[in-house]
Amino acid sequence: MRSFHLFIFSLLSHLTLQAQSDTLYVNDTHTLALVFPNPIVRAVTGHPDYTFGYDTDSPGRLGLLQGHPGTDSNLLVLTDDGLAYSFYLVYRKRLQEGHWFVKVDKSIGNVQPEKWLDTLGQGMNRSIKPSLQSDSIQYRKGSTYFMEKNQTVLKSKRRDGIVLRLRDVAYYGTDTYLVMEMENRSDIDFEVDFVQVFKAHGNPRKKSSYQKLRMEPVYRHRMPSMVKVGQKQCFVYVVPKFTLGDWEKLMVELREKRGSRRVVLQWD
Question: Is the C-alpha dihedral spanning 36, 38, 41, 46 positive or negative?
Fold first, then answer.
């Protein structure tokens, strides 16, 4: 475990210096639940007064955090898409919240999981299942392949100078690869808050019969955080395999982080 701690801190030190950690307030009588965008594969606290529990046998998105009175500390979390998250830990008798959904933009960088997993394997017994590494590489290769194909635009939507295009819907194995593109034709840089994908059924004007089911991503490839004026950025959003039935549509929602711009694309 000591070798893992040293490796993680040396790997992330330069990223942590460039990013300000969010502060989490915890105590020993309540549990703070953290839900990450992707499954947790590694986590470490800087002091034994703080504990962070997560499922190591079947990695999931949920982690449980507690702390005891004493010195402040920090928490580092790595998810299976290679993103690293850093938090500053402070003990407080009373908590204001019991859960927090962590967004992708809170990460401090990408550490390329296929590389650090191999490094860990050289110095300690690996508790991470090999499938996590192979799945990540498979998703990356599949995303790169579908991005490089010559695609016609299936659907596009423009609003407030922001163009969202659906370039391809490709099925591979048990997953669906959605190849999309953002273009900024406005006069202001577009900072991405989130991209969400839904399967919608019915007519939104008839609320009693309208349903919108969010499809959680299993992988994101080259997901942009900022699209500057005049730029285009292509990315891939991987979701579990699905089909569209009668009266069903695929809906993609793009929202600006520090602004009111919003683009919703529908395809059937």
Answer: negative
Residue 109: the pLDDT is 76
Asked if pLDDT for residue 11 goes beyond 80, the answer is no
- Sort residue 34 into left (φ over 0), alpha (ψ -120 to 50) or beta: beta
Q: Amino acid identity of 42?
A: R
| Closest-CA residue to 12 (of 96, 111, 138) | 111
Cα→Cα distances 241→6, 48, 136, Å: 40, 42, 17
Cβ contact 146:181 at 8 Å: no
Torsion (CA) 132, 136, 137, 142 in degrees, nearest 10: 140
**pLDDT tens digits, 209-245:** 568 888 988 888 999 999 999 999 999 999 999 888 8
| Cβ proximity of 11 and 86 under 8 Å | no
pLDDT of residue 124 exceeding 50, the answer is no
Number of other CB atoms surrounding residue 206 within 10 Å: 8
| Helix axes of 2-18 and 113-123: crossing angle, nearest 10 degrees | 150
Residue 21 tokens read as: 């950690």
Q: Is the pLDDT of residue 132 over 60?
A: no
**Which domains does the chain possess?**
2-128 (no CATH), 148-267 (2.60.40.1150)
* Amino acid present at 214: R
248 vs 206 pLDDT, higher one: 248
Q: 238 with 217: CB under 8 angstroms?
A: yes
